[in-house]
Write a structure and sequence with these properties.
heterotrimer, B: 319 residues, mainly alpha, MetI-like fold, two-stranded antiparallel ribbon, 15 helices, flat, C: 522 residues, seven-stranded mixed β-sheet, five-stranded mixed β-sheet, 19 helices, globular
Chain lengths: 299, 319, 522
């Protein structure tokens, strides 16, 4: 039943998406091309889509010198992302489900307490003191997993609002009347209806863990094998900035800058940082779409 | 959907009676929520009292709680500067622009993606998500690749096409609001549209079919069905954004303009000002004071916005 | 509904207060516990200095400092080698906590705030006055700590240089042995470019060629004509401190001494002729086309640019060994020109100092370790170069670090930061008597009259943050020559005055006068 309007919509919509895709991919292509450019050429001519000279130097440097470090960092990133996403989904879903139950006593207060954490934060030093002196997560894998990322108010409230809007209380009450316990109700009634939001939160949590370099920066000092790949890259960047800023105090700042891997290496590390996601994401997305579409008509 | 169920006569639980029976009935729910609540307490509430360091002269030997009170002195540097107006104005205006532009873009993309036929839409969605994975430092380099004065793509390739002269992009602050808003949308549209997309996916297809049978055009369907059903999500996300209105994405305002002093007029925000001012001095209490300032303002604004929403649309208020 | 809201807020408040109670005991006491342990230990064990090795107890200490890129691969091996010596000698074993430069700052702030054990720490990337004001450092002379357990230190460094690190008469840190003076007004130029314009060094110039500013301008003009497509000069943010005779009192440009710090009058740097002339010079160089338009945004190191053949010259600080250093960095022979005098500024000694933080577990043991670091050549070589024949080789008395195919060394730290690099081998590429050259360079340089003065900025933190913001806005455009100094300097100065610059200047003058008076009476 394709009306003319339908076809116009499809054409315009596709055009818009193609433009946006190009806008998204062109700079990324530039990043990848510059990681394969000869460093001296890059310095002379600047960034270009058609570099005068190609070179694999950046990648050989990474795998040679740091070698095991980069591969280990990859492994670390994957482990953290998978473990973290699972834990995060568990905490977020259980709390959001509970908060969405309309009859829950103290529901408003608990929701407010969750929301309050979005606005007020103890600050870096108190959080650090909390996690290192009381919970001893410094230089451990928990320092990467637990602080900040495992559950945040944004995800909880998002999920709660979805539960409230799309999982009618009446269905849950009906299950309760039928004799099902809360846990059974949640697992067999509510969660299947909430697949889209669960997939969404899993994606957000996963991306959050993959992109995070802050936890590693603060909590990992001695056990450098716990560095994730984004952490490695951002350390480089921070060092460059520190040296550039402090060159008036550090007369040898220029030596330092020279020791830090060159621009092409930084581009290569950034490319390495997104490659796994590019590789894995379509696969995840296919499965999400399968689980998400409820009697999908379109597509 | 809710109304349909109500009409079918399903039982609804009695509301707002805090007697022992109700609490006992909900104990399993409390237990389900317990892990999340414990994490919330450990992660967010245990460090929160540390905020009072903003009001103290921090001394390491005395610790946060033993240090001396100095009232609001740590807050002075935020106001006693000729930049105070500029950084506040920049932060607020950019955030308002982000709310409007990013919401519009995300909804538009979500609607288009949900309506497109064919396998290509999965590719589109993956592609527009990629910019979100790149750290803002690298984005800064990529922007530099385009806007560099000597070698940049724009000065060397694009402007000559229109017979225009090179522009000193990194010393002219008037262009940067556009650049920053564009970069912000570029980075976040893929991420933001996921929320709206999943909301749209959760809408029962049958209402579209019945509307279509009734003769509604696609645009009408979007306007009268999709958008109203997205309203709760839009309101919630906007309220949350209002709560963060005094915060800014540090990477976006520091890294992307390459920390150029000449661009401060349009790229200096509260966060970058605090960072630049304190990086040499390293005073913990002063940076905590900035955090308190941003939090309190956001909190007040969100409560006010929430009150406003309650007046018009009680169901969708945040609290 | 209203009740519920109030109840929610009340509960939140109550929660905060109750957690404050348990929070305070944890955070507060960890801070004080570490502090008191250090003090009592030094009192009771002060007398057992000579018997420490024999009583069999090994104290585990943590030494924290950065390198440019973080902990080298062989850190554990080198640590073991150091401990072989240290355990027998002073009953101490050390753990080298090496970070990369940027995270070092963050890590130290957090570690000190939470009471983590750090026994020896370098003050680089941190503000000395803030550390003292926050109570992070141990007084090194409390209970005769340094006299008893660090007897070799003062004689090695020299009393004058030690005194240069005092604040209010108390000693909290020790300077490393290195070049404190700096040759001002230095430019490094690639030699092959000089050859191309037919420039010949005057006879008997020595390592650094001393010329006048006019001669330099002449050379640069010729270079630009000869190489119109190359970047002739790359400025740096350290330009004003390296290229003028202004003394950055207290380590920042807000309130300086003029004329190599010869008189003790604190003035506004931006109203001095020296600053105006510097900006005018940069402006003229920029207008002549010597400076790349991307100079303000590009963070690539000048060495990399030289090596790539895109840059001809850049500003640098001069010292014995500069030529070798810049040549190795730029991968080509560099000629160093100097247009101003050698100068030791008031804050040059009190930089990158070694301290014993207040979170140390045993100040006595830490001081003993400090003593070894300043007097034992074996320890020093291990610290800087690593293990002989594994991490470095010695040829003709000079040490050469062993690097792998990608140019990374398995172990190497920054010699200029080490407590006493003069005990270690001279690095290859330099002349064997480099340390002596540096010592006489230090002794013969002009010295600031304010040498040893430390500025306590805790009373003007608001103003410092505000003027820093103004300076950040204008610094590069002015000092890289992109803005016309005739109008812009006045504009910036007015903004700074509005932000409270005069208050900072007055505070500095007051503290300086008090310091000078106290010095007189000693």
């Amino acid at each position: 039943m394709r009306t003319k309007e339908d076809r116009i919509f499809q054409t315009i919509g596709s055009t818009i998406m193609i433009i946006m895709t190009l806008l998204a991919l062109v700079p990324i292509a530039l990043m990848m091309i510059s990681s394969l450019t000869d460093n001296a050429t890059l310095l002379k001519n600047g960034y270009s889509f058609f570099p005068g000279k190609w070179s694999l130097y950046a990648y050989t440097w990474i795998f040679q010198s740091n070698g095991a470090t980069v591969i280990k960092a990859y492994g670390m990133s994957f482990i953290i992302t998978i473990m973290g996403t699972i834990c995060s989904l568990f905490l977020t879903t259980t709390l959001a489900y509970g908060l969405s139950r309309k009859g829950l006593p103290l529901r408003g207060i608990l929701t407010f307490l969750v929301f309050f954490t979005m606005l007020f934060n103890g600050g870096l030093v108190p959080t650090y003191i909390n996690y290192t002196t009381i919970f001893h997560v410094k230089d451990t894998i928990w320092g990467l997993l637990v602080p900040g990322l495992m559950m945040n108010a944004f995800n909880v409230l998002l999920m709660k609002s979805y539960f409230t809007a799309s999982v009618p209380d009446e269905i849950l009450e009906a299950a309760y009347i039928d004799g099902a316990g809360e846990v059974r109700t949640m697992c067999s009634v509510a969660l299947p209806m909430a697949k889209p939001i669960i997939a969404t939160i899993a994606m957000f949590a996963g991306l959050g863990y993959w992109n995070d370099w802050n936890n590693g920066y603060i909590y990992i000092v001695k056990h450098t094998e716990l560095f994730t790949i984004q952490n490695l890259l951002n350390r480089l960047m921070q060092n460059i900035q520190a040296l550039a800023q402090n060159s008036s105090n550090l007369s040898s700042a220029q030596q330092g800058l020279a020791q830090i891997p060159s621009t092409t290496v930084r581009m290569a590390m950034a490319t390495l940082g997104i490659l796994p996601v590019i590789a894995v994401y379509p696969f995840i997305q296919k499965n999400f779409v399968k689980g998400i579409t409820l009697g999908g008509v379109k597509g | 959907m809710n109304t349909m169920m109500k009409k079918a006569g399903a039982v609804t639980a009695p509301a707002h009676k805090m007697n022992g029976k109700r609490i006992r009935r909900f104990i399993p729910v409390y237990l389900i929520m317990l892990p999340g609540l414990i994490y919330l307490f450990i992660n967010n509430y245990m460090p929160m009292p540390g905020l009072i360091v903003a009001f103290k002269q921090y001394n390491i030997k005395k610790g946060i709680y033993g240090s001396d009170w100095i009232g609001f002195k740590n807050f002075e540097y935020l106001f006693k500067t000729s930049d105070a107006f500029v950084i506040t104005r920049n932060t607020i205006l950019y955030n308002v622009a982000f709310i409007i532009v990013n919401t519009f873009m995300a909804i538009m993309v979500a609607i288009i993606l949900s309506e497109l036929y064919g396998k290509a839409k999965n590719f589109y969605q993956s592609a527009i998500l990629l910019p979100n994975l790149i750290s803002t430092v690298i984005i800064g380099y990529l922007v530099f690749a385009f806007f560099s004065v000597e070698n940049g793509f724009i000065n060397n390739t694009i402007l000559p096409l229109f017979n225009k002269d090179s522009v000193d992009w990194y010393s002219k602050s008037q262009y940067w609001p556009f650049i920053i808003i564009f970069v912000s949308a570029w980075k976040s549209v893929g991420y933001n549209c996921i929320i709206y997309l999943s909301s749209i996916m959760g809408i029962d297809r049958s209402i579209y079919e019945s509307a279509s049978i009734d003769g509604a055009s696609k645009m009408q369907q979007i306007r009268y069905l999709t958008l109203p059903l997205l309203k709760p999500t839009i309101i919630m996300l906007t309220l949350m954004a209002i709560g963060r209105i005094f915060y800014s994405d540090f990477g976006l305002f520091y890294q992307v303009p390459m920390n150029q002093g000449a661009l401060y007029a349009t790229t200096n925000t509260i966060d970058t000002y605090v960072y630049r001012g304190l990086i040499q001095i390293g005073n913990i209490s002063m940076s905590a004071a900035a955090g308190v300032y941003q939090s309190v303002v956001g909190f007040v604004l969100v409560l006010l916005a929430n009150l406003a929403v309650r007046k018009f649309d009680k169901e969708n208020a945040l609290i | 509904m209203r009740m519920k809201r109030l109840l929610a807020i009340g509960m939140a408040a109550g929660m905060m207060i109750s957690t404050a109670a348990c929070g305070s005991s944890a955070a507060g006491t960890t801070g004080t516990a570490a502090g008191t342990t250090g003090a009592t230990e030094s009192a009771t064990t002060g007398t057992s200095a000579t018997t420490a090795a024999s009583d069999g107890k090994i104290t585990h200490l943590v030494m924290a400092f950065p390198t440019f890129t973080g902990a080298p691969a062989d850190t554990a091996k080198v640590q073991d080698a150091m401990n072989e010596i240290l355990r027998k000698k002073i009953g101490v074993e050390v753990e080298l906590q090496i970070s990369d430069l940027a995270s070092y700052k963050q890590n130290m702030t957090l570690a000190l705030s939470s009471g983590e054990q750090i026994d020896i720490m370098n003050t680089i990337m941190q503000d000395y006055a803030t550390l003292i004001a926050q109570g992070s450092l141990t007084d090194l002379e409390a209970d005769n700590l340094m006299q008893t357990d660090g007897p070799g230190i003062v004689s090695t460094i020299g009393q004058d240089y030690v005194d240069a690190c005092r604040v209010d008469g108390k000693l909290y840190a020790l300077p490393g042995m290195r070049d404190y003076a700096q040759g001002k007004g230095c430019i490094a130029v690639g030699t092959e470019y000089l050859d191309a314009i037919g420039y010949k060094e005057p006879e008997g110039s020595g390592e650094i060629v001393k010329i006048t500013e006019d001669e330099l301008n002449d050379i640069l003009a010729k270079l630009h004509t000869q190489f119109p497509d190359m970047e002739v000069m790359r400025p740096a943010t350290s330009g004003v401190s390296q290229y003028t005779n202004l003394d950055f009192l207290g380590g920042n440009i807000f309130g300086v001494l003029e004329n190599y710090g010869q008189d003790l009058k604190v003035v506004d740097a931006f109203q001095t002729d020296e600053y105006k002339n510097f900006c005018k010079l940069m402006y003229s160089w920029n207008q002549n086309g010597y400076i790349s338009k991307d100079a303000t945004t590009d963070t690539t190191s000048v060495g990399t640019l030289e090596a790539a053949g895109t840059l001809i010259a850049y500003q640098t600080g001069g010292k014995p060994g500069s030529k070798a250093q810049e040549s190795s960095g730029g991968n080509r022979d560099m000629t160093i020109f100097q247009t101003k005098d050698d100068y030791m500024s008031s804050s040059s000694v009190a930089s990158f100092m070694w301290t014993i933080p207040s979170t140390t577990v045993d100040a006595t043991a830490a001081m003993k370790l400090m003593n070894e670091l300043y007097t034992d050549p074996g320890i020093e070589n291990l610290l800087i170069y690593g293990i002989k024949d594994t991490n470095y080789t010695v040829k003709d008395g000079l040490a050469e670090t062993i690097k792998d195919e990608s140019g990374t060394a398995a172990y190497s730290t920054l010699g200029w930061m080490a407590p006493n690099q003069f005990l270690s081998y001279v690095g290859s590429g330099n002349s064997a008597d480099l340390w002596d050259q540096i010592k006489s360079f230090n002794d013969n340089a002009k010295k600031s009259s304010a040498l040893g003065f430390s500025f306590d900025g805790t009373g003007v933190t608001t103003e410092l943050a505000a003027v820093q913001a103004v300076y950040d806005e204008y610094q590069k455009s002015l000092e890289y020559g992109f803005a016309d100094p005739d109008t812009t300097i006045a504009e910036m100065d007015k903004k700074m005055m509005d932000a409270g610059l005069q208050k900072i200047i007055d505070a500095k003058q007051e503290q300086l006068d008090a310091w000078a008076a106290a010095k007189q009476s000693n």
